[in-house]
Design brief:
mainly alpha, Serine Threonine Protein Phosphatase 5, Tetratricopeptide repeat, 29 helices, 2 strands, IML2/TPR_39, Inclusion body clearance protein IML2
Length: 712
């Protein structure tokens, strides 16, 4: 959509690759206007229009379209194309930044930011996107390059932010910058002389040659057994957004990873007190950058820095625990709450691509992550604010399926899955972005699974196979598991129909092995691929041992296990929870149950306890865990054939949630909150277990919540 606040006299911005100070405002306005089409599901039109321009802003917009395709679809070919476009955009931004510094007449003069900051921002944005694409790449070497780019983008954004804060404090002493979470003085005191990163003075060439081909055999090494690394995320009371990266204050030699030595282990200084943290929060909420300047280029820099740095802070706070060592090498950490404050601030400019992207991050983060965590502060999910943001986004970008997905997720958060499915399926519009359409079908498939609408669910997941090539094995596994449930339901009432379902289940499950193991993340197999392959091997062994059909050898409902790991119980109404309880009770009714393996018995009890807890039957849930899970020692679980090793640590997590609920939340009974913390600590010390990343965000959120509540 047109950006009226960016309009300017229209010089010729296509005649040359080099912009002048006169060209720049219009080039930015034009590029931002076309880039906004992306958010309105007009991606092809955006690509066509953006390709007509040669400015760094146009190239950034073009690269963004491919980046979205790559991250939504995880398709190798698209990721390769995105990497090339991003490299081109990065080089253009770097060249214009160098020109701006060499020849001031070519650059916009801002009263707030250093000359060339708009290009430094473009450079940082391309580095951020390139880093994400690199980490999604199956190569370990490319992933390491990605973390290096993240580090550089982090430092660039920090310098832009500090420049803004210095201006605001000097000229508007009654305000505090929205990009600050503490005073600039505190950050200045943390610095030592002569330690500027020089990020706003771009180097002539990237240091990518520092990277040599990694030995991919390292991917075969086991995941670290110490679970403590999972909670290396920062305490939100410790991170000061104004801190200079500590690497820049010590040894400035460069190590083999292209980063500055002396980095590992450095942490930002803590707030002096919790009151200073609260004061910082209040200061952020009361700031309006548009009252400081009406310069559209300054608005672009401000909204872009807020969006990018906020997103980076958020992503770093969610990095999977297995990458903790890499993060320590690259010496940066994230702060989830500070990141969200920055993203909310960027949404003040939601009619440009920066603000819209901030909204696109905030809505799914809250609806698909925070809302599904069990232990969090009440204010962590600002329902009214999120509904207001979604309404504005749908008004500004009415054609986009992105916002349809978020509206559906909001209904899921409210345990109204039927309405969620209706929203996803009744809208006749189909996204022009194939990857977005695939995401809509996937979301529909998941909701149907939570609703126990098995036949529809199986069909939807089989449709996913033709729309997305990321995890076909998972799609076949869930579709096959749906027919397992239908087979069980009519096994004794309609044997002929049951046989039909059995055959379909066997056919679909037979497709799993040949469709897993092909995709890798940082040279490792996807955890869900490892999980479903092990389950199949387990069932095959059981079938051979028991001399029965594969489908009859399956233990506790595999679909209910999937529902747990995809947070389905948190979305279910009481009626659907009762349906899950009935599906789990099926195992108890089998004549083989008394001799069933203890890991299967523990799985069943953990899932039943989770259902009971979501039904509000906390005491019954605790009893279930105590009598049917904690009665087993870890060695008894792991001794089982192709053992599921996750029930015990997950049971401790579930018990912690029970204590949290009994306490009444963050301001409840301290003794109960302490019990909650004790159970979480057991999981934190457990070591690695299967699909531990599926509960990692819940654990991190829970620990941060308790810490803020004063419970250690």
């Amino acid at each position: 959509m047109a950006m009226k606040w960016l309009r300017a006299a229209k010089p010729n911005v296509h005649a040359s690759k080099s912009l002048t100070a006169l060209d720049e405002p219009h080039a930015l306005a034009e590029a931002m206007s076309h880039a906004a089409l992306i958010m309105n599901d007009e991606v092809e039109k955006a690509e066509v229009e953006l390709s007509k321009g040669t400015s760094p802003f146009h190239k950034l917009g073009t690269a963004t379209t491919l980046f979205l395709r790559a991250t939504l679809g995880f398709e190798k070919e698209i990721m390769e194309q995105a990497a090339l476009r991003l490299a081109d955009a990065e080089e253009a931004a770097s060249e214009h930044q160098r020109r701006a510094l060499r020849d001031p007449s070519t650059a916009h003069e801002s009263k707030i930011y250093p000359r060339g900051s708009e290009y430094a921002l473009c450079h940082a944005e391309t580095q951020l996107m390139a880093a994400v694409v690199a980490v999604l790449n199956e190569s370990l070497t490319e992933s390491l390059r990605g973390f290096y780019k993240l580090r550089k983008a982090f430092t660039t954004l920090l310098e832009i932010i500090e420049a803004e804060n210095r201006y605001v404090e000097k000229h508007h002493s009654g305000s505090t910058s929205s990009l600050s979470s503490a005073s600039v003085d505190k950050a200045s005191e943390a610095e030592t002389s002569g330690t500027s990163s020089g990020v706003l003075t771009p180097v002539e060439k990237e240091d990518d040659e520092e990277f040599k081909d990694a030995v991919e055999s390292a991917s075969e090494q086991p995941t670290p057994m110490e679970y403590q690394g999972k909670l290396e995320y920062p305490d939100v009371d410790r991170l000061n957004l104004q801190d200079k990266p500590q690497t820049l204050e010590k040894d400035t030699s460069v190590n083999e990873f292209g980063t500055v030595n002396g980095a590992a282990g450095d942490a930002p200084p803590a707030y002096e007190s919790s009151s200073s943290k609260r004061q910082a929060d209040a200061e952020v909420d009361g700031f309006d950058f548009r009252a400081i300047t009406d310069d559209p280029i300054d608005h672009f820099i401000h909204s872009g820095a807020a969006m990018c740095f906020g997103l980076l802070q958020l992503l770093l706070s969610m990095i999977p625990p297995a990458f903790g060592k890499i993060l320590s090498i690259f010496s940066f950490r994230g702060d989830r709450e500070a990141g969200m404050r920055l993203l909310w601030r960027a949404t003040a400019f939601k009619n440009n691509i920066n603000g819209a992207m901030a909204g696109l991050v905030l809505l799914p983060f809250h609806n698909a992550a925070i809302a599904l965590c069990d232990i969090h502060r009440r204010e962590s999910y600002p329902k009214e604010r999120l509904h207001g943001l979604l309404k504005e986004m749908r008004t500004l970008y009415p054609r986009s399926i992105m916002w349809v997905l978020e509206e559906s997720r909001m209904h899921g958060v409210e345990r109204n899955l039927e309405e969620a499915v209706d929203i996803l399926t009744c809208d006749a519009k189909t996204s022009s972005l194939k990857q977005m359409e695939a995401l809509r079908v996937f979301e529909t498939s998941m909701a149907l699974m939570f609703l126990h609408r098995y036949e529809e669910c199986a069909a939807a997941f089989q449709k996913c196979v033709h729309l997305n090539n990321w995890s076909h094995g998972l799609y076949y596994y869930i579709a096959g598991s749906c027919f397992v449930e239908m087979y069980r339901q009519c096994q004794h009432t309609d044997p002929k129909l049951a046989e039909t379902y059995r055959d379909k289940a066997k056919h679909l499950l037979g497709q799993v092995a040949q469709n897993t193991g092909k995709k890798k993340f940082m040279a490792r197999q996807l955890p869900l691929d490892v999980y479903i392959n092990r389950k199949l091997v387990k069932w095959q062994h059981r079938a051979k041992t028991r001399e029965c059909d594969l489908i009859d050898a399956i233990g506790v409902s595999p679909l209910e296990g999937m529902i747990y790991f995809w947070n389905g119980y948190k979305r279910m109404s009481p009626a659907h929870l009762q349906e899950s309880m009935a599906r789990l009770a099926w195992s108890h009714d089998q004549p083989t149950w008394p001799s069933e393996a203890v890991d299967e018995k523990a799985i069943c009890a953990v899932l039943q306890a989770t259902v009971l807890r979501n039904l509000g039957k906390t005491e019954e849930a605790k009893t279930m865990l105590g009598e049917h899970v904690f009665c087993y020692e870890p060695h008894q679980i792991t001794a089982c054939d192709q053992a599921d090793n996750w029930p015990l640590p997950v049971a401790h997590y579930e018990l912690s949630v029970c204590h949290w609920n009994e306490a009444g939340g963050q301001d409840g009974d301290v003794a109960k909150l302490k019990l909650c913390s004790d159970e979480l600590a057991k999981v934190e010390r457990w070591g690695s277990f299967e699909l531990d990343a599926r509960v990692g965000l819940k654990l991190t959120t829970a620990r941060q919540t308790l810490t803020r509540t004063g419970i250690s």
